[in-house]
Design a protein that fits this description.
Elements (H helix, E strand, L loop, with lengths): L3 H11 L2 E6 L6 E5 L1 H18 L5 E6 L5 H16 L3 E7 L8 H14 L4 E3 L4 E3 L2 E8 L2 H38 L1
Parallel strand pairs: 3-4
Antiparallel strand pairs: 1-2, 4-7, 5-7, 6-7
């Protein structure tokens, strides 16, 4: 245990700062370090933590009810990219003029989008029709659900390969038997 004056003198000799680490402890705990460097490292750690905690942003994609298939496919790929990055996607179907008479066209577009993104995104509620805009919100499927689906698919593929391999082995045995006779 060193007095405050002695600790301050030691810090000055080394060209560093005396920083109080635990002020509530009895006696208070201090460290001798370069305070500027310490603050820099702290802000760097905070930025890294904030980057990792990025919450899903809401991205919007706008289409018309009579959108062509190729144009819709491009929008769906863009939505898939957003969802895979962890963002929520709001798909908006914007009606103009007399298109309001046919809301079923907008529903058909939203169903196609939801169907194409079924594996990577899940619906957040039903489509909402507000004035001239029909919207649908899609959020990313949790990583756990994605992993369980992949594991299931891998298991099924493995079983299929094993069945095929055992059939080939059986077929090969039959061929060998035929050759020896």
């Amino acid at each position: 245990m060193v007095t405050t004056d002695k600790a301050q003198q030691m810090a000055n000799e080394k060209g560093l700062d005396l920083v109080e680490v635990a002020p509530t402890a009895v006696p208070p705990v201090c460290k001798i370090l370069d305070y500027g460097k310490y603050r820099y490292e702290q802000t760097k750690k905070e930025k890294k933590v904030r980057l990792g905690q990025r919450s899903g942003l809401l991205k919007e994609i706008r289409v018309r009810p009579q959108v062509k298939d190729h144009d819709l496919d491009i929008k769906i790929n863009l939505a898939k990219k957003f969802v895979l990055e962890g963002d929520k996607v709001k798909v908006l179907v914007v009606f103009r003029g007399r298109q309001m008479v046919h809301p079923e066209l907008g529903i058909k577009v939203l169903q196609k989008v939801a169907g194409d993104l079924k594996g990577v995104a899940q619906l957040d509620g039903q489509p909402i029709h507000e004035g001239r805009i029909m919207s649908l919100i899609l959020s990313p499927v949790s990583a756990r659900q994605t992993l369980s689906k992949e594991n299931k698919e891998n298991k099924e593929a493995k079983e299929t390969r094993e069945a095929k391999a055992s059939k080939e082995v059986k077929d090969n045995k039959e061929i060998r038997v035929k050759e020896t006779v």
